[in-house]
Amino acid sequence: MRIARYAREGQIHYGLVELEADGGPHPQTVADLTGDPLVGPVDLTGARHDLEQVRLLAPVLPRSKVVGLARNWAPEADPPGEDDFPEVFLKPNTSVIGPNDPIVVPRRGPNTVLEGEVAVVIGRICRQLPLQRVPEVVFGYTIANDVTMRDFLAPGGPWGLAKGFDASTPLGPWIVSHLTLAQAGQLELTTSLDADPVQHGSTAGLRWSIERQIAYLSQVMTLLPGDVVLTGTPPGSCRIAPGQVVTVLVEEIGRLANPVVAEV
Amino acid sequence: MRIARYAREGQIHYGLVELEADGGPHPQTVADLTGDPLVGPVDLTGARHDLEQVRLLAPVLPRSKVVGLARNWAPEADPPGEDDFPEVFLKPNTSVIGPNDPIVVPRRGPNTVLEGEVAVVIGRICRQLPLQRVPEVVFGYTIANDVTMRDFLAPGGPWGLAKGFDASTPLGPWIVSHLTLAQAGQLELTTSLDADPVQHGSTAGLRWSIERQIAYLSQVMTLLPGDVVLTGTPPGSCRIAPGQVVTVLVEEIGRLANPVVAEV
C-alpha cells in the first residue's frame, strides 16, 4: 500500500493512494482512512478523492526523531565489522516539510546542498533488536531530501545547525508499506536539479544496509513509531539555489519534488 | 514557581513544589495542577502531596528537540562576533530521563562522561526572535546532565550516537519559572561524582549567553513549547562508572542526582 497524509478543506487526513484503473504509472486517487495508521488500526471511510484535489503533506511527522547516516554510500567498501559504527546525525521534527513545500536556503547558509535518500519509517517501538527481527519494526519506506548547510560543518564540530534548520527535511510523497527489506535494498535512486540528474545509485550500494542500520541504531537508542531513518545519499550532492527544483525519484516509491526559495 | 512533573498511583501529574512553612531550604510538598502548564492554562486541583511520596519525573518531555551547545564555557573568550556561530548538537526526546533515574553506561561506550548544565525550557513557539524578545519565550530553567559517549566522537564525524543514546539526558528536578534572564546568567553550578566536586562554574562564564543562544537558534530552527536548550558545561567533565552517583547542583534551581549503572 501507499499511505499518504494530506490536507483537504482545512483538515488533515491519512489515505491510501490508488493507481489508475488501467494500471498506468500515475496514482490518481486517495481513499480516506479513519485515522493515523502509525498510531492504531484504521479502516477506509469510504470517501475517495482525486489526488490532484488534495495537498499531500509529509507522510509522517516524527514524534521523536529523524536519524541519518553520513557517508554511507560506498559500494566498493567492505561491509562494516564488529567494531565499526555508523556515522549518525539527528534532525528535529521541525525540519520536516512535505512534497512541493519550499526548501528555504538560509541567509547564513549559501552553500546549502541536496542529498536524495531512501527513508525508513519505523512502525513499532524497539530496542536491542536482533538483525532478523528488523522486518517486524519497519512500517514502510518513503523518500527524503537531507538538505544540508555545508557552511556549518566546522571541522570537529557538531552538525546540529547544518542538518537541523527549518525545511531541511523534505519527506514524501507517501509511505510504501509493501516492500520487503530485500526489495528496499535494491532500489534505484536519481536526484535531479531542474532537468539535470546529479545523483544516481542503488540502495545496494549502502555500506550499512538498511537492516544493519536499524539493528545498530536500536542498540543505542529506542526507536519509536514514526521515527524516520535516512539511509544514506549517493555521490553527487551539490549546491542548490533559489528558483531551482530538486526532484528525488526512487523506483517502487515515487517522486519527491521541492522548489528552492531564498530566506526572506 | 517550581513546576514539577511527577507520578503518583500510576498517573502522571504536574504540580507546584512548595517550600516548607518555616522557610527552610528543602521543598516538601507538591500542589497538584489540572494539566500541563506548557500546553495551556492550568489551575490548582486542591490536592497536595508530600514530595517524598511521589516520584519526580523529567519536568518536560520535549515533543520536538533537545538542543545543546558544545564548548560554550569560556569566561576569558571574547563574546561571539557577527559571523560566529555556536556549536550546536541535538539530542532526541528518547534520551531524556528524570531525577534519580539511572544513567546507563552503554557496553559500547566505556568512555562515557558527565556534563552538568543549566537548561532552558522554551514556553512559546518562536522563529527569528530578536534578542530583546527572548524573555517572552523562556518558560523556565531546569538542570541537565548532558551525558556523552566520548568513544563515538570520531574526528569530523557527527555526534548522533555520542549524544543521542538512551538515558543520556537526565533533566530535573523541576522547572523554575521565576528567574529573570539576568539571574539565569549568574547561576553557580557544581557537578559532583559521589562526594567529589568535579565541575564548578557560573553561567556568567558562558561564551554564548543564554539570551544570545536562544536568539541565534531561533534564526535557524523553529523552537516549540517544551523544547530544551542545554546551555553549556563548565570544565571538569569526567568519566562516570557504574556504582557512582552524579549530582548537579545549581543555585536557585536545585539538585539533580542520578545513579550510574551498567548496560546489561
Architecture overview:
Two copies of one chain form a homodimer. Chain A has 264 residues and is mainly beta. Chain A has two domains: 2-56, SH3 type barrels (Roll), CATH 2.30.30; 58-262, Fumarylacetoacetate hydrolase, domain 2. The first copy, chain A, is built from four helices and 19 strands. Chain A has helices spanning 134-137, 160-164, 181-184, 210-220, and strands at residues 2-8, 11-19, 27-33, 44-50, 55-57, 66-70, 87-91, 96-97, 103-105, 112-113, 116-122, 138-145, 148-149, 169-176, 188-193, 196-202, 228-230, 245-250, 254-262. In chain A, strands 1, 2, 3, 4, 5, 6, 7, 8, 11, 12, 14 and 17 form a twelve-stranded mixed sheet that branches. A five-stranded mixed sheet of chain A has the order 9-19-18-15-16, with no helix packed on it. In chain A, a hairpin with a 2-residue loop joins strand 15 (188-193) and strand 16 (196-202). The mean pLDDT of chain A is 95. The A-B interface holds A 63-65, 67-68, 70, 85-95, 106, 108, 127, 152, 154-161, 163-166, 219-224 and B 63-65, 67-68, 70, 85-95, 106, 108, 127, 152, 154-161, 163-166, 219-224.
CATH class (first level) name of the largest domain in chain A: Alpha Beta
Mean pLDDT of chain A: 95
Following the backbone from N to C, one meets helices and strands of chain A in this order, namely EEEEEEEEEEEHEEHEHEEHEEE
Sum up the overall morphology of chain A in one term.
Answer: globular
Number of helices of chain A: 4
Kindly give the count of domains of chain A: 2
Helix content of chain A: under 10%
